Amino acid sequence: MKISFPYMGTSHIAISYLLSGLGHEVIYPPAPTKKTLSLGVQYAPEFACLPFKILLGTYLEAVEAGADSLVTSGGFGPCRAGYYGELHKRILHDLGYPVEMLVLEPPLRAPVDFYRRVSRLVRPQTSWSNFYRIFRIGWEKLRTLDNLEARLHELRPLTLSQKYLTAAYEQGLEGVRAAQTVDTVKVAGAEAIVEMGNVPLDMTRKPLRIGIIGEIYVVLEPFANHDIEKILGEMGCYIHRSIFLTNWTRDNTLIDGEKDVRASAVPYLNQLVGGHGQNSIGETVRYAENGYDGVIQLAPFTCIPEIVAKSIMPTISRDKGIPVLTLFLDEQTGRAGIETRLEAFLDLLRQKRMQQEAS
Ligand code: SF4
Q: Is the CB of 303 inside a 6 Å radius of any atom of ligand 1?
């Protein structure tokens, strides 16, 4: 198979390793750009959410580059995510690209179907034992990439040189990409953490602490959120992101995954509303209880789960005393507008902190 997949954050490093390790020719999905988005906007239904449009643009670029198969994750519950794969496939077929779409649903929800689809990836080229070996290395890469990113979020508001910190981080990504065994991935990650820690820090700063919540694609993909984590880090804020790909994969592989965060949501929203809607509520409650200064909700325009969550945010905000800023994102959203709203939100958080310190 000439195979490609959605581009989301740094996960492409691990996913491309996994697929090429299974013997497939990987058509590397390009990082999304304005061109990707306008391709998606051109061929997607107008009401489709932003992730759908960016993914469609990515797929079009990948099939143009020669991909004949696309592998992606599915979805369940009352939300459009479960239809993404089928809709993308039909649009691509209508446009004259007869691609095979392999949609991987959570394994415990439909084990036989999951086995059948994974077999399509494994069996034609290799053995299950090789799959296990490659999967372990790919998983370690994913875990290490998440750890490096979390460390980057911790160091950004304290560093005296954004440039060197970014360079050390990117060098770490290269180390993880090049590593070929679980041990060498671990070594590359450990070396990158040391290198990032060598950049001088100002430990007297007391950064605002902000939790980032929302729909998974716009939280994880910097192009979709205008690189909000970098903007906030460089504005001197410590960012804690509620979703990383490893915790999302683990939680969605288990039937009972995310039960703690959902339990936190229950007093405000006691049922699944699709996507990350209920999680957004639970995570906001947890950030408030853990003393965070504020929460930023990232929501694709027309995303029903996040709209439901947003409608409940004022109540949580009042009960728990935590300011919440919701940013709706679509193809019309501009970086300048986001920066202006962030500056105003940070002013509010600083004033609130000063009042707390004075009282
Ligand atoms: S969670 Fe929101 S953005 Fe994602 S598919 Fe569902 S409606 Fe669309």
A: yes
Closest alpha carbon to 291 in 215, 208, 193:
208
Are 313 and 168 within 8 A, CB to CB? no
Evaluate if pTM is beyond 0.85: yes
pLDDT tens digits, 208-221: 999 999 999 999 99
What is the SS3 assignment for 356? helix
| Cβ burial 309-340 (10 Å sphere, 16+ → b, else e) | bbebbeebbeeeebbbbbbbbbeebeeeebee
Both 270 and 298 in one domain: the answer is: yes
Does the beta carbon of 214 lie inside 6 Å of ligand 1? Answer: no
Residues 52-101 have pLDDT tens digits of 999 999 999 999 999 999 999 877 767 888 888 999 999 999 999 999 99
- The residue whose CA is least distant from atom 2 of ligand 1 is 303
* 335 lies in the same domain as 219: yes
Site to probe by mutation for ligand 1, drawn from 50, 79, 331 as the one with most ligand atoms within 8 Å of Cβ, is: 79
The residue range of the domain holding 351 is: 205-359
Crossing angle of the two packed helices 81-94 and 50-64, in degrees rounded to 10: 40
Does residue 79's CB lie within 6 angstroms of at least one atom of ligand 1? yes
Q: Does ligand 1 come within 6 angstroms of the Cβ of 74?
A: no
Give the Å distance between the CA of 106 and the centre of ligand 1: 17
Q: How many domains does the chain have?
A: 3
User: CA-CA distance, 37 to 14, in Å (whole number)?
Assistant: 24
Distance CA 149, CA 134 (A): 23
Instruction: Say if residue 194 is in the same domain as residue 245.
Output: no
229 and 355 part of one domain: yes
